[in-house]
Write a structure and sequence with these properties.
- The strands form 2 sheets. This protein has a 5-stranded mixed β-sheet, with no helix packed on it. Strands 4-5-6-8-7 form a 5-stranded mixed β-sheet, covered by helices on one side.
- It contains 3 helices and 10 strands; from the N terminus they run βαβαβββαβββββ.
- The protein has about 160 residues and is an alpha/beta fold.
- It is globular.
């Protein structure tokens, strides 16, 4: 089984990212969905062996990170983006369409600061919520576990600091 961490919207709360990475030491990779690019120094400096896939968000001013990416883990294709270019706060239809156009099994996105899992037939949309500025008051992140073609999605709370 492969565990992928999905984190978004830290907004300067690098201590939250640190707490997540210290807890989830068996993760195979981190996918960062933007709005807190500068917080990624924690992963780069303290967890240098952890592969990091990252995109910029609408608050990552001057970022050189891409706006979207594709990554495959054990035959499961992930399309990941922050979500602002698809109006994710208004509708998920464009995200779903973007994932299908790219042949993705899973679409990962942030921007809304709310955890979401939505199965759309052959595509699943997953938003981990916000790790540093949650609208619900509970900062969170996502864990995706892959076992063959079985993919499980879980929302977790950021560990106490």
């Amino acid at each position: 089984m492969k565990k992928i961490l999905v984190v978004s919207d830290t907004h300067g709360a690098d201590q939250c990212l640190r707490a997540i990475l210290q807890k989830e030491t068996d993760a195979a990779a981190l996918i960062f969905l933007g709005d807190g690019e500068k917080d990624l120094h924690v992963a780069e400096e303290e967890f240098p062996r952890l592969p990091v896939y990252a995109v910029h968000g609408n608050c990552d001013f001057g970022s050189l990170l891409p706006v979207e990416g594709l990554a495959a883990f054990d035959g499961v294709l992930f399309y990941y983006t922050h979500g602002h270019i698809y109006n994710a706060k208004m509708t998920l239809d464009d995200l779903e369409r973007a994932g299908r156009e790219r042949g993705a099994d899973v679409v990962l996105f942030g921007h809304t600061h709310q955890g979401i899992v939505k199965n759309c037939g052959d595509v699943t949309l997953f938003n981990p919520g916000s790790a540093g500025q949650s609208f619900s008051g509970h900062n969170g992140y996502g864990v995706v576990c892959i076992d063959g073609k079985n993919v499980e999605f879980e929302h977790r709370l950021v560990p106490e600091l």
